[in-house]
Design brief:
Aspartate Aminotransferase, domain 2, 16% strand, binds 4'-deoxy-4'-aminopyridoxal-5'-phosphate, PyrdxlP-dep_Trfase_small, histidine biosynthesis, amino-acid biosynthesis, Histidinol-phosphate aminotransferase, pyridoxal phosphate
């Protein structure tokens, strides 16, 4: 007998999953794409050629284990991995968040982050049936230290995610507050994940915290660096802890082509550093242009995006889009983001297009 698919699905798929929506991306073909914090620069022509030749010689008939070990060693050197620490790879840092959730989904566990922050922290907890507690940020998107300390004491979360800089607000938090939260998490017996996706554009990082505290992990990605299509994320922490989390990694999760492309990028880190410097310069230009627009309030950013409040985000989003530029309207993500747009920093030309489109849409 041929089964009826809807009733079959209702029986075999978890009920909580049936109520969720898949992670959605807006169609972007033909637009100046300033919605997902990608690096807008391709590699220079000569490097593209060299990369093509390198990829052409990769042994795609073999499983990728050796090359991914080379990549781990290269990333450890690049990031300055402290003594006693190890690193594991994810197919993007999204997969690392999944691995962390799987590893720490003890019955009764709580995961926590400030809000608004990266949506996958909460979604990934929900997928594992773990309770997620979000603690609203204070005015100007600083950490609300008292509320965070109270929530840590009450819930004793096993994971605290701090996106540093934060998505979608773009800021780095007060370091003294971050350090006091890390101390509180140490006392509560939980892990702190410093999510440094935007580290290439930020003035500070948490490598010293990683070296100092056994319960601190640092997560990074090559996506914002310039390899969003390649999908390489990595997690650094004490070797024994990384060994546990590594057990949740799907075998051969990073393809040999991805590993080779990432190794190539690290060999040309100076080119990527040049691109990041250009993006930081455009960020400053965009920030100043937004400040000068009547009714627009941009927040200072340490990432490759700027959060800006406008008089009417839906109208501004549509107006910008009708002029061929795609940004992200984040108004619905959290009450504190009412009428806020998140603007990715592009090339000088793209930034000009965005500034003109927004000005015309106000
Ligand atoms: N962390 C943060 C804070 C992000 O904003 C993102 C993506 N926008 C990620 C992690 C995931 O990045 P990826 O999976 O591309 O490494």
């Amino acid at each position: 007998m041929t089964p009826d698919l809807p009733s079959l699905m209702a029986r075999v798929v978890r009920q909580d999953i049936q109520g969720l929506h898949a992670y959605a991306v807006q169609p972007s073909a033909g637009f100046v794409k300033l919605d997902t914090m990608e690096n807008p620069y391709p590699l220079p022509e000569a490097l593209q050629q060299a990369l093509g030749e390198r990829l052409g010689r990769v042994a795609i008939n073999r499983y990728p284990a050796e090359r991914t070990e080379d990549l781990k060693a290269a990333l450890a050197q690049f990031a300055g991995l402290p003594e006693g620490c190890a690193l594991t790879l994810g197919n993007g840092s999204d997969e690392i968040i999944t691995m962390l959730s799987l590893a720490c989904a003890v019955p009764g566990a709580v995961f926590m982050s400030p809000l608004p922050s990266f949506v996958m922290y909460g979604l990934s907890a929900a997928l594992q049936g773990v309770r997620f507690v979000g603690v609203p940020l204070a005015a100007d998107f600083e950490l609300d230290e008292r509320a965070m300390l109270a929530a840590i004491a009450e819930h004793r979360p096993s994971l605290l995610y701090l996106s540093y800089p934060n998505n979608p607000t773009g800021n780095l938090w007060d370091d003294a507050v971050v350090d006091r939260l890390i101390a509180a998490m140490g006392e509560a017996g939980g892990l702190v994940v410093m999510d440094e996706a935007y580290q290439p554009f930020a003035a500070r990082d948490s490598m010293a915290r990683l070296a100092a505290h056994p319960h601190v992990l640092v997560m990074r990605t090559m996506s914002k660096f310039g390899l969003a299509g390649v999908r390489i994320g990595y997690l650094m922490g004490r070797s024994a802890l990384i060994a546990e989390i590594d057990k949740l990694r799907p075998p051969f999760n990073v393809s040999v082509l991805n590993a080779e492309a990432a190794l190539f990028a690290l060999e040309h880190a100076d080119e990527y550093a040049r691109q990041a410097a250009e993006i930081r310069a455009q960020r400053q230009r965009l920030y100043e242009a937004l400040l000068a627009m009547h009714g627009v309030h941009p927040w200072p950013s340490e990432a490759n995006m700027i959060l800006a409040r406008v008089p009417d985000a839906a109208a501004a989003f549509a107006g910008i889009k009708s002029r061929g530029v795609l940004v992200k309207n984040v108004s619905a993500l959290h009450p504190s983001l009412a009428n806020c747009l998140r603007l990715t920093v592009g090339t000088p030309d793209e930034t000009t297009r965005l500034i003109d489109a927004l000005r015309a849409s106000l």
